[in-house]
């Protein structure tokens, strides 16, 4: 999320037409097209964040700027050339790194939260403990995971929480 993504088309010479067919999970479909005989580009229902990376007659790659969850979906590049018709299909999944927070609850137990990640993060603790993570889904498709540390032995003073996520791994420690 937040970075740019570039999707490429099949590298064929003598392209006569290139079409990007985009079907996001949210909102309606959009298309970007290029015809070499007229040296003409066309766009239908595409946001300004989606455009040709370079000139489509030289490289028909698609660039998505400031990728967001709304960009998730299917992207198909169709190339018509003198060699035949070719296509490349992408399924774009957007990762949102969660924010890790660690605090002590009213009973002096460490609580670890992986806030608003996509997909849901996994939480574990350095010392053995009993914990059951709880997940809370949000309207934008992100998930917050909450885990409370309960030590098996009462002499544990420091707790370290580990968050595992495809976009970021992180740890934090606290003494309650």
Automatic annotation (TrEMBL):
One of the record's GO cellular component terms: external side of plasma membrane
Membrane-topology annotation of the record: Single-pass membrane protein
SMART domains assigned to the protein according to its UniProt record, in alphabetical order: IG (SM00409)
Domain Ig-like stretches: 1-93, 100-175
UniProt main location, coarse: membrane
UniProt-listed PROSITE patterns: IG_LIKE (PS50835)
Subcellular location: Membrane
UniProt record, GO biological process: regulation of neuroinflammatory response
Record protein name field: MOR1B protein
Organism: Probosciger aterrimus (Palm cockatoo)
Lineage: Eukaryota, Metazoa, Chordata, Craniata, Vertebrata
Gene name, Swiss-Prot/TrEMBL: Cd200r1b
